Amino acid sequence: MSQSTVFRRRTSLHLPDEIVLEILTRLPVNSLLRFRCVCKTWYSYITNPNFISTHLSSLLSHNHGCVIYMRRTFPWNYSSSPPTLVACDRTFERVSEFRIPFTFQSASSRLVGSCNGILCLTDYIVSEFNGVYLWNPSIRKFKKLPDTCLSWLHHPKLGFGYDSLNNDYKVVRISRSRVKDMMPPLEVEVYTLSSDSWKRIGFGIPWRPNVVFWEIKCFLPSPFVSGHLHWMILYAEDRGGRDRHSTHMILSFDVNSEKFKELPLPADEGSCCVIYLTSFKGKLALIKLRYGVQSRDTLCSIWVMREYGLFDSWNKLCVLPFESTSNIIGFTKYDLLLIRKRPRLVSTNSELEREDKSVLIDPETLHENEISIPVDIYLDLATHMESLALLAGENVASY
Over the chain, what is the mean pLDDT? Predict the structure, then answer.
């Protein structure tokens, strides 16, 4: 049989488009990026928004756990941004790394959140609006968001989530106006990726009449749970005279409907020194730190909201005792808690030195595993996956 005959037989084989698409949706991102060059038909398949959504659904159902972590940058510490690292979820062993391909005006950055392979980063130091970026390191593309219509806001806080009803991504920015009133109003604006624009929205929740002060207290990226973004708010109530009572509340934002509501905190004994708002197994969770009987001891209680929005569904998962105050970094996709135990004095060659200890803790089994990667309070952590998101977007830059 001649070579030309074999070639004709091979090229005459034709798979139905449905089967070709089914195969493509199961392939990794790197392969799909290369296969765009096979032919115009495959290029149109892979860059089609519907295909990107279908491929994302396939990845979510077979996703292996990875976390992405980056150190917040400060202009006085770095001449260039440190790498953004990807690690295996269960062991925290390094898998790969990326360099942030853009810079901020103040040369500082912080991770807002991670959603479906897209990272949202913003300026960390400057209060005024100086740029927000959406970045997909898997496909080497990023997008700088347009400037906001609001300016001169006080300590803005951001959240990043996915609008499942419209297959869209949104960034929410909330802040206090820089007014001299004791109760400055809350300002809210929402960026929508499909329209590439910001819009102001109303808060919609009346403050209690005796609230005289409030501030947003977020130590970790705003958790995106059940289609909602969340922030912790500390407010003070005037109870007459010099008596003021401080209370926490959870502010919830529905990314689909763009409506706010207040969620209750679990009732707990004792006062807390720090409250972290996070997620655990796809559920809203709280981490409360309070001092134990001994002044150097810290008790870490983890609460999980089993049924979203229901006060009675708060359940205390566990209480972890620590010998000293620790820094909570966050949960991995497999729900291991990464913490940094503060430096302690250890004896080395008849000298006292300080030693950090970074550990992963399983809150259900209480198993503790020390890791070699050093972490500190300036480390931002989020779950991560590969995706084609931003591949077909407008005004997206490649590098």
Answer: 82
Closest CA to 162 of 152, 150, 171, 175: 171
Q: How many CB atoms lie within 10 A of CB 168?
A: 15
Helix count (H) and strand count (E) of the chain? 5, 26
pTM for this model (two decimals): 0.87
User: What is the three-class DSSP state of 103?
Assistant: coil
The whole-angstrom separation of Cα 383 and Cα 15 is 37
The mean pLDDT value for 248-258 works out to 94
Beta bridge partners of residue 141, listed in sequence order: 136, 398
- Can you tell me the distance from the alpha carbon of 318 to that of 300, in angstroms, rounded to the nearest whole number? 8
On the question of pLDDT at 340 being above 70, the answer is: yes
Examine the pLDDT at 129 and tell me if it is beyond 70: no
Calculated CA dihedral for residues 222, 223, 225, 230, nearest 10 degrees: -40
Q: How many other CB atoms are there within 10 angstroms of residue 150's CB atom?
A: 17
Q: Which position has the higher pLDDT, 325 or 93?
A: 93
The DSSP output letter for 311 is G
- What is the DSSP-derived secondary structure letter of residue 223? P
Q: Which residues contact 321 (CB under 8 A, 6 or more apart)?
A: 292, 297, 298, 299, 300
- Tens digits of residue pLDDT in 279-297: 999 999 999 888 766 656 7
Tokens of 246: 């401080």
SS3 string of 169-180? Answer: EEEEEEEEECCC
Higher model confidence: residue 67 or residue 208? 67
Quick one: which of 269, 231, 232 has its CA closest to 253?
A: 231
213: CB partners within 8 A, 6+ apart: 182, 183, 235, 236
**Helix H or strand E segment including 291:** strand 283-291
Could you report the per-residue pLDDT of 342-375, keeping only the tens digit for each? 655 555 555 555 567 888 999 989 898 888 877 7
Q: Whole-angstrom Cα distance, residue 100 to residue 195? A: 25
Q: Which of 191, 100, 201 is nearest to 146 (CA)?
A: 191
**Domains, the chain:** 3-47 (1.20.1280), 54-398 (2.120.10.80)
